[in-house]
Amino acid sequence: MTYTLGAPMRTIAPLLLLAACSGKVIEPETPATPSDPELPIATPPPADTPTESINATGLALQQQLFTNPEKNEVFSPASISVAFAMLAAGANGQTADQLYAFLNQNPDTAHATLGGMVKTWNDQGNDAPLTLAVANRVWVDSGLSVLDSYLAMTRDQYGAQATMLNFAGDAETSRETINTWVEDNTNDRIVDLLPQGSVTSETRMVLTNAVYFKADWAVAFDAEKTEDKTFTTGAGATVNVPTMHTERSMAYAESDVARMVMLPYKGGTADFLVVLPKGQTLPELEASMTPQSIDAWVGAARQGMVDLALPKFELNATYDSLVTPLGALGVTDAFSRRADFSGISASEGLQVSDAIHKAFILVDETGTEAAAATGIVMRATSAMEPPPVVVFHADEPFWFAVRDRATGTLLFTGHVADPSVER
């Protein structure tokens, strides 16, 4: 059966948007002798969660996106995985094979496991110490006939309700409506995701996903201890940047290739990972990262006194087109005339014309705020024990991640090459 919103149109251009955001809350009371909460012994992610696949997809895409070691970078593996999973739900044939391979997912179980994780993230409760909320929406042109099975899949697994818009008759108003939804679901951190001209009269469908994360540090940094310190950038220059400082017990791990500290957020369900390369450059370290290596660092982390210096930073990143990076990872048919999205509409041949990702992160004494949005546009076919006090001064380029502790999912990753600039 099909779910018809008006008469079929000759062209269709669905757009998938994904947004993720984390934010600050009120600074917690700092104990007289600050100490991060003791971490539980790390265990592998539950077998029925897609954590390893999300992390593997994110780290593979990271290699394609983080090509300039002199630039700051940030993006959301979780956002991109959910966005492309919603796209894959409507794919068939080789198009589907390539998308599920990119997602590292079995098509028979992908939506149940990813959808289950979305439900878990939303099941935090009103009294939870942090907020992690996921919202999805399917925007359909009034003239498009969409398969009922596709709308049921996105609704039942991802909570995406269908909303009718008039792309063909008023593309600009439709664009503004979608941008407002993204802004509302990312705490206004992702603004004008869709620039003028990105939605046209040929656009027929837009899929949006927004992830919002809000938390503060379990132990806040003392703002009075923040002072300008020297940072050696990825370009080899030195800049003076506001740098936070603390000396307290926290989780620390060290291997032959990296040193890591974990800063927990209030409530103990998420952590901020800061990783410095050891005996190699940051690009070399990033090239060797795998989900297993990150799990090993986390599993080796032990509480110990750490003298930590971490620059405050605010980053904005826009990836204008993911077509080339995705093509390098094997996703090619979706962007060509060979695309098969017959699982979305039986009456139109569809292909992806572009995919856009935009992200933001702010780290300061109170906590972390981050947001990300991804757009996919379619058109008609045509460790060791730490010493008594570890010195961990992030005064050179470092990799970071916001990690969901319960599942091990990397919600955001990035690297800081120069904290004195936003990108």
Secondary structure layout plus pairing:
Blueprint: E1 2-4, E2 14-23, H1 51-65, E3 73-75, H2 77-88, H3 93-103, H4 110-122, E4 131-141, E5 145-147, H5 148-158, E6 161-165, H6 171-184, E7 205-216, E8 227-232, E9 238-254, E10 258-264, E11 270-277, H7 282-288, H8 291-300, E12 302-311, E13 313-319, H9 323-328, E14 350-363, E15 367-380, E16 389-393, E17 398-404, E18 410-416
Parallel strand pairs: 2-7, 4-6, 12-16
Antiparallel strand pairs: 1-5, 2-15, 3-18, 4-7, 7-15, 8-9, 9-10, 9-12, 10-11, 11-17, 13-14, 14-15, 17-18
Strand content: 35-45%
Element order, helices and strands?
EEHEHHHEEHEHEEEEEHHEEHEEEEE
Whole-angstrom Rg: 22 Å
Helix content: 10-25%
Shape assignment: elongated
Describe this structure in words.
The protein is built from nine helices and 18 strands. It has helices spanning 51-65, 77-88, 93-103, 110-122, 148-158, 171-184, 282-288, 291-300, 323-328; strands at 2-4, 14-23, 73-75, 131-141, 145-147, 161-165, 205-216, 227-232, 238-254, 258-264, 270-277, 302-311, 313-319, 350-363, 367-380, 389-393, 398-404, 410-416. Helix 1 packs across helix 2. It is elongated and about 65 Å long.
In short:
The protein is α+β, with helices and mostly antiparallel strands and 423 residues long. The chain is built from 9 helices and 18 strands. The relative contact order is 0.25.
Descriptive key words:
423 residues; alpha+beta; nine-stranded mixed beta sheet; 9 helices; elongated
